[in-house]
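Need Oxygen-dependent protoporphyrinogen oxidase's 3D structure for a figure. Predict it.
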Amino acid sequence: MSTDLDVAVVGAGVSGLTAAHELQRAGLGVRVFEAQPEVGGRMHSFRHEGFVVDEGAEQLSPRGYRATWQLLARLGVSLDDIPKIGSAVGMWRGGRAHHGVADRAGMITGMGLSLRARLDLARVLGGASRRKAEYDCDFPESTPLGAATVREFTGRYHHELHDYLFQPVAGCFFGWDTARSAAAPMLSLLLAVGQAGSWRTYLDGMDTLARRLADGLDVATGVRVDQVAAERDSARLLIGGDTVTARSVLLCVPAPIAAKLHANAPDHERPFLSACTFTPTLKVSCLLDRPVAPESRRPLYVLLTPEAEESVLSGIIIDHAKHPGRAPAGKGLLTLMANARTVPDLLEAPEPEVIARLTAAAARYVPGLESANAANFVHRFRYGLPEATPEALRLRSAFMARACAPVDYAGDWLTLRPSSEGAVRAGALAASRTLSRLGGKKDRRQPSLNSALEAV
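Structure prediction for Oxygen-dependent protoporphyrinogen oxidase:
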């Protein structure tokens, strides 16, 4: 393992695989090192007796995911491989599910909000839409919201806007504590992706993109990098007792891990790396002997459970409604998402305890769950989702303007956007920065990476 490389990529999540793909297209020699036995990182799926189980959670919007769609098209992934979800997002309040969340119809159906709260929501969305150009997901630090947290921002309006919309959405989809995470990235993302009725999912699991990218790359799985150190014009990686040298190294791992790995990170990089904290995530997959789901007048694929109503769960994903192919015919699959405040107590708990806590809570919302529940899997990520703190938002602009160096970074934490789009864009940007240092050998008649990035 002492072969010198053009580029070593640490981490085979979506950002690392995207960066490696782009650099290999440019003619550079690239190897990806992944500590886990499989690719995908937080977007990994596994198959068990006909079930396709996502360890994370992902959906694609036709809007706001331009880089992801461009990459999928390049890899030959068709719309048939990414069907529409078709089901709704619901909110639990007052003993029942209310549909219409993330949908224009919600302003009529109520989605669990009072009339006054809906009027305030119309004010928020109307004002943001009129200034939509200022809510750019690539520059969340430049929005009119400044560094206000989600709780501070929603505190200007009716309390239901926080308690029965922003908190449940932030808690389930982002794993955020609204008192710690900035509102600007969240509102920018919600404006970009549009209505839930147009969202899509991967036919064969959320790791589809990762697997397609990895198929054409040199990926060493089950290999843990212990340390990375920058030299004057190159970098070295310590892997067990071996040293691998590369002209450039990309740390495509969560910021806390990157900060530990990079032994001699420059002083000007450390404040942003420290500010990019992560929330841990925990979920339980329920493999069912029949398809049970929350009762609702309209089929749901997600039921959000606000902290105002529920202390253990942040939401329930009805995977067999998200796409019927996720479970064998006549069976069902649910994902129980733990509340951000519950996760720290359960992160190191034995699996039976985790399963018991989450399934007991979910039984309140899913009639028949206890009798239908045939098997369970627990999924834990200590570094689950980037937290997008106000401090990270304040420091981001200076960090993004840093000079290119032998050791660089990629991940959705750089974009403060917890999604595959954030990871893809960060990976493409890291590849572009690396090429600006190293140059490429690609035939100039082929589309360049820079032109691809401009199209994104």
